[in-house]
Amino acid sequence: MLLSRLKWEAHELDTPLLVEWLYGRREVILFLLEEETEVRRFSIYRLAHYCLDLSELAQTDRVVPIVIFLDRGRHPYELYLGGERHNYLSFRYIACELKNLSADAYRDSDNIVARLNLLNMRYAKGQKLDIYHDAQLGLAQLERDPNKQLKYVDFVDYYADLSDAELETYRNDYLPEAEDRMGLAQILREEGRKEGRQEGETQTLTKQLQLKFGELPAWAEEKINQADKTQLDQWVERILFVDTLEQLFKS
């Protein structure tokens, strides 16, 4: 019953995070992280409902609601239910209002979350590319896992929303002088896009072959997975004119 209630659209939450302490020295605690792009859509009633339902489901009163606001706006911080003599329900949450934080204060931070969110903080209009650069530099310095770098670089790009002109200025004015220190993130992004396109072509060719010839033998799958983009393009063009896999893969 509670699981179905937690799936209601009115109760949707971004991230419930369960923290368990080593060796059970302290009770587990639930952190509820809610991101609000538009402040006007925030409902303290919805958040309170979710906290109560999740508290009942997890059988714990150790629940910490956190709301991350990406834009400015007015919103309630507390909720009280009661009458003239008593309050019977008191509810509040931790508010993280990124636009009220100065990006300048976090440009050299060793906290990767702060660096990735620099563009969601407050900065002067003319600082945009400088802030973008510091976010990218922070990613290259603080995250060594290439897969995570590819993931987070898209996060930075999404909130930067650079125009073509801004991107061209960034490439010309920032990358050449800093390529030894910072170019990794940019290179990873371009490589990721190329790999993504090739992976898409690989999947498309595989599906087309399965539709025409049925389940593929292991040797055919191996040839497809080892092929470069040029070879994949040739096979995609040839598939309509062959009757067997051997004809398709013939040099």
Report on this model:
The chain is of the alpha/beta class and 251 residues long. The chain folds into 3 domains: 1-99, no CATH class; 101-173, no CATH class; 197-249, no CATH class. 51% of the residues lie in helices and 14% in strands. It is built from 10 helices and 6 strands. A 4-stranded mixed beta sheet has the order 1-2-3-6, with helices on one face. Strands 4-5 form a two-stranded antiparallel sheet. The longest helix has 39 residues, at 175-213. The relative contact order is 0.06. Mean pLDDT is 80; it is low at 178-184.
Question: What are the defining features of this structure?
Answer:
single chain; 251 residues; 3 domains; four-stranded mixed beta sheet; 51% helix
What's the helix and strand layout?
Layout: H1 2-5, E1 15-19, E2 29-36, H2 44-58, E3 63-69, E4 78-82, E5 87-92, E6 94-97, H3 112-116, H4 128-142, H5 146-160, H6 164-173, H7 175-213, H8 218-226, H9 229-238, H10 245-249
Parallel strand pairs: 2-3, 3-6
Antiparallel strand pairs: 1-2, 4-5
Summarize the structure.
The chain is α/β, with parallel strands linked by helices and 251 residues long. The protein has helices at residues 2-5, 44-58, 112-116, 128-142, 146-160, 164-173, 175-213, 218-226, 229-238, 245-249, and strands spanning 15-19, 29-36, 63-69, 78-82, 87-92, 94-97. Strand 4 and strand 5 form a beta hairpin.
Which blocks of ≥5 consecutive residues have pLDDT under 50? 178-184
The number of E-state strands comes to 6
Number of helices: 10
> Which structural class matches the secondary elements?
alpha/beta
Mean pLDDT: 80
Q: Distance between the terminal alpha carbons, to the nearest Å?
A: 61 Å
Strand content: 5-15%
C-alpha geometry: extended
